[in-house]
Design a protein that fits this description.
3% strand, 328 residues, mainly alpha, Ferritin, 7 helices, globular
Length: 328
């Protein structure tokens, strides 16, 4: 028996210096794997789960039927009515317009439009229930609001903040102009939405009701256009095409003086407003109802003079209110 209290342990020949490095590397690698796979919310001492993660959630299937199409039309009508109500509440239709100095207060007219679009939404929802929809869609269209209407209000009223690549954009120099132009755009969109619905739904009664509502929107859009532009019944191109043999010419919109013609008559008339890229609406923008994109231009220009430009379109797959879509 040895008298030593702490004998020196014997190290085998295989447990050499290289073996220590090998064991140390394996320990570090194992700890890294456990740390990566471990659940930080798990209690101390529990091992993290190793293996495949949870499966991807399955999205509900979006079926397009009469109920979905009619619910979507109802949501468009509600979005339009909500946009008009916001204009009225904020007094955006009562302020004077530098672009259209003779326009006057359009609050009363657009208030009537609000009522019509609310009723149209109710009608579309009633038809949707008849078509088998589980429930009506009583709020605005999420896509139309977030991608079109809300950005227009933000750009017109507040402009846009500066970014790393662009300077700040000021609020609109003429919010009333931009709002009444938006009214015309939304009336055209409502009419086009009703027209696009006709070949998509299966029942003749749905088609007839859609055309009745679409006709009213088309008339409202024409009425607002004539309030803005009293002589603007058709575009200059349509006017010339309708009577190509006429010897008269359409007056130029330029404000540059024609020095080749002598000045005659009263020269004290106020100058025309400077032309911009914002088109002036007309009562009949096309000979037949068009389903093409409706271009809206408004707000103040950026550092290069470029204004906000959006193309409104009739409902498509990314704006349909499917059966699983709710107002919540």
């Amino acid at each position: 028996m040895s008298n030593e209290t702490n004998p020196t342990p014997q190290v085998s020949a295989s447990f050499d210096r290289r073996g220590l490095f090998r064991i140390g590397g394996l320990t570090i690698a194992t700890a890294a794997v456990l740390a990566a796979c471990g659940d930080p919310a798990s209690s101390a001492g529990e091992l993290g789960r190793v293996g495949n993660g949870a499966p991807n959630p399955e999205l509900p299937e979006g079926k397009v039927n009469d109920g979905v199409l009619l619910r979507t039309s109802a949501s468009f009508e509600t979005s339009i009515a909500d946009a008009y109500q916001r204009m009225i509440d904020d007094g955006l239709l009562a302020a004077a317009s530098a672009t259209f100095p003779d326009l006057g207060d359009q609050t009363e007219l657009v208030t009537g439009f609000v009522d019509q679009h609310r009723k149209a939404a109710e009608t579309y929802n009633q038809l949707a229930l008849e078509a088998g929809a589980a429930e009506p869609f009583t709020c605005g269209n999420p896509r139309l609001d977030s991608a079109f209407i809300d950005p227009i209000f933000e750009r017109v009223l507040n402009g846009a903040p500066a970014t790393d690549t662009a300077k700040e954009i000021a609020p609109s120099e003429d919010p009333t102009r931009d709002m009444v132009n938006l009214v015309v755009t939304l009336e055209l969109l409502s009419a086009a939405t009703a027209q696009a619905l006709v070949p998509q739904v299966s029942q003749a009664s749905y088609r007839a009701e859609a055309m009745r509502l679409g006709t009213r929107s088309a008339r409202q859009g024409a009425l607002m256009s004539l309030h803005i532009n009293p002589d603007g019944y058709v575009t200059e191109t349509d006017l010339l095409n309708a009577n190509p043999a006429a010897s008269t010419t359409v007056a130029s919109t330029t404000t540059v003086q024609d020095i080749a013609q002598p000045e005659t008559g009263d020269t004290t008339a106020p100058p025309a407003p400077p032309p911009t890229e914002i088109p002036v609406p007309v009562a009949l923008p096309s000979q037949y109802g068009s389903l093409a994109a409706i271009t809206y231009i408004g707000g103040a220009g950026d550092e290069n003079g470029v204004r906000l430009k959006l193309n409104f379109e009739t409902p498509s797959l990314n704006s349909l209110t499917y059966d699983f879509t709710t107002c919540e």
